[in-house]
Amino acid sequence: MVTLSRWWVLLFISLLYLTVAIGNARAKEENHNKFHSVIKATTNENTERNLKKIPQRRDIQAIDLLKSSLLKLEQQKAMKLDVFVSDERVFKGNIPINFVYEYQVAVEGDSKIRLTFPKASGKGILIYAHGIVTYFDAKRNLYTQGNYEGTLGGLMDELSYQFQLRLPGVELLKRNTSNVIDNYTQSAFYIGREKIIEGIAHHLAFFNKEIDWQIWIDERTLLPLYVILTHKHLKGQPQTHLHYKNWYLGNTLNEDLFEFIPPDGAVDYGQFRSRIIDSLKEKKNNAE
């Protein structure tokens, strides 16, 4: 359960995130070429597939490999990585459009996380540490903070379900192996070993009622490399393509990653909001 000193803190975060991830979505040619050499772009043909029927198959090899990969992440005290996202939306007329963006993740234990959302001008940063959630919008030089009591997974769920802050692919990073195995692997296929840019990877495919997904797991490191999500419950059955890269696993991360010191001129959103309200009241009083 989330306990925030100001409920609008998370609402503000979600609105700023949408500006970062969607309004400033941009193609990164070097990543795009590497990404699509492994995973082909979505077409009208595969957005129109009938995927309601779940295949009745459960390959133990696929389950065991996924479990080994997730357990490796779950056992890490600290990790850092970049996530490249190609997120499809199906618009009127069944026209699929992909929005491309990237975010960075740094996690330490179950009480510290830093999410960085790069964009063309400035960036957005979300930090949770020492019981405080902070969001900073570098473009506007605004920040907001609030208290939170709970786990990192709970925080991500709250931001997603209550405030529509979507982070595609974050489910694998919550380090909750049993949740993924129990809820996302109703049907499981081991496709085989495949040669990709990073080396040899195990290609696995999973199916359930609302989402079908495929994952490529590095044979040497057992780390997730690529994921395709097919959202069967959404109109047009759009897909999300993910590339996990620049992995760092260790015992600790630089403490500075989880500290927020407002830069020169930065304004607390609470103060900013109060100034706007005071200004409106003053204008109203002058008009009277």
Q: What is the string of SSEs from the N terminus onward?
A: HHHHEEEEEEHHEEEEEEH
Strand proportion, as a percent range, falls in: 35-45%
Give the class from helix and strand content and strand pairing.
alpha+beta
Sequence of strands across the biggest β-sheet: 7-8-9-10-11-1-2-3-4-5-6-12
Report low-confidence residues grouped into runs of 5 or more: 1-48
Distance between the termini: 45 Å
Q: Report the CATH superfamily.
A: Lipoprotein localisation LolA/LolB/LppX
Write the CATH fold name: outer membrane lipoprotein receptor (LolB), chain A
Largest sheet: 12 strands, mixed
CATH architectural arrangement: Clam
Instruction: Indicate how many domains the architecture comprises.
Output: 1
Kindly state the number of beta strands. 12
Mean pLDDT: 79
Total helical elements? 7
CATH class: Mainly Beta
Shape: globular
Note the topology.
Layout (H helix, E strand, L loop, with lengths): L7 H16 L5 H10 L5 H4 L12 H15 L3 E14 L3 E14 L3 E7 L4 E7 L2 E6 L4 E6 L4 H12 L13 H8 L2 E10 L2 E9 L3 E8 L5 E8 L7 E12 L16 E2 H19 L1
Parallel strand pairs: 6-12
Antiparallel strand pairs: 1-2, 1-11, 2-3, 3-4, 4-5, 5-6, 7-8, 8-9, 9-10, 10-11
Description:
A twelve-stranded mixed sheet has the order 7-8-9-10-11-1-2-3-4-5-6-12, with helices on both faces. The protein has a single domain (8-260), classed as outer membrane lipoprotein receptor (LolB), chain A (Clam). The chain has 288 residues and is α+β, with helices and mostly antiparallel strands. The radius of gyration is 21 Å and the shape is globular. The chain is 29% helix and 36% strand.
